[in-house]
Amino acid sequence: MKIGTLLKERKLQLFFLIYVLLLVPSVSLIAQNIPVKTMFLGILASFGLLIVIFMLSSFMSTKAIRIFYCVLLAFSLVPSAILLGYLLFAEVMLSNTSMTTLFETNPDESKEFMTHYMNPWVILGIALYILLPIIMIIKMKHLSFQRVGEHKKSFFVCMSLLLLCLAIEPVAQRIYFVDFYRTYADYKIRTKAEEKAIALRQQQNFEVKLLEKNAPKTLVVVIGESLSRHHMSLYGYGRNTNPLLSGKRSSLKIYEDVTSPQVHTIPALRAILSFSDHDHPEYLTECPSIFELFNRGGYETYHISNQPFENTDSSYEPILKQANHIFDLSAGNKPDGVVLNTLQKVLEDDKRKLVVVHLMGNHTVYRFRYPESFDYFNYQKHPVETNLFLSNEARTVIDEYDNSVLYNDYLVASVIELLEKQNESSVMLYFSDHGDEVYDFRDFAGHAYEKVSTYMCEVPFMLWTSGSFERQRRDLVFHTDRPYSTTDVLYGLSDLAGLRYKGYEESRSVFSRHFASRERKIGDLSYETVVERTEAGEGIRPIEYWASTVKDKINLSLLLDNR
Length: 563
Hints:
Number of helices: 22
Largest sheet: 7 strands, mixed
Oligomer: single chain
Structural class: alpha/beta
């Protein structure tokens, strides 16, 4: 059959293949994080697959084509919906790292996200996106086709090219839905291997010495969620979002220059809760994680979480389950106050203990993170200082985020008060897994590694110690201006807890006299690179940059006129 005739007779099939295979690569042209060369290669690989499938379909009957195209649509629909949705939400294409994080998102979080971002127009758009290719499949007419027996060589060439597109990695990773499933398969294989390795490691010897004269009676680690220090009055934010902790400033060590190792919860906590870092990811399975370490060091360990983690297939679930006592309080999606009663009961245990409290903190959707009594900030009463021309909807989101920060202030202050009542040698360390950018310098709220900024990785890091612990540990120093990454927090906790073991590096404890600063990584990027990108306004649309610049000039002019 001649090519011209084939194209004329099967134009609906061709349009279907363009819709399914080329729409996502073509729309990726608007993504802020994809180099032009990568976009071109993606379009080229997808176009090559389109030609192969179109030629192969000439050997199929109309019924076979409909079945084949239904299967193709089913395989491509989920990846394309996710990638296009993420592109519209964050104006970036999802990277493999973020894709892996997406696989671990729990159902409650997904439901909450959908509830917040779904509106009639989005639902209508999704319905039309799905309905259009289905209509095309139904409308495909009965056509003549080539018999395989009469064109064996052509059929063999088409099948060989199809298999090559799927099997050769440089080509497969450029075809969006093939890469999606390859990434998922790699993720499942890796996590199963990690789970097995962590279980086997429990049977291996690893000596941990406890320096009893240095060990506190109670060590509480509170891990926040999505809290940027840029929205905390403790760090200079204009709104008073930390009234209670500000009142405890004299007993707090507030570290000024701390970053997270990632801007998504799961990769960040995989590094924070283990010895794994950018250069040695294998330490996740080769070395003890936080609960294993403290269990072997003679501590009773507790994990209290308001984030769901049990039976979620999360890649850090095996680490969390090493705690002696586990309390998953996430059922009901209640604000973080639910952890306080459980923590109070745990603190009554007379044993030496490590308690890790994981909060929902300031996770999107922000208005769900606090009770009505903390609905305080309102942009009409409490104006937000910004160089951006923000909509009222954006200002409302800032209000909701700041209200969640206000509630988090109450939570952390309440934890300190519980420890103060114990009247014993105790320590509390608070930090957030990562931050959120909330219309801080561009029209965006949330976190996405593909458009990482300093607002997403600069986190609060606060230490509270009882008077008896400070008198007990004259060897520690608290220089709050030290540049530090929470990827090394396990060394600092070991120092606070008086634990020593093979592989302990005193220079990586921020509380040690022998601390030495190291290069900080945010994913694969250096922190300095993230700072440069943020200062350069990377990811800001030209109109936003122009608006903020004009406003800066107006403000400067007014300032000079008033001098």
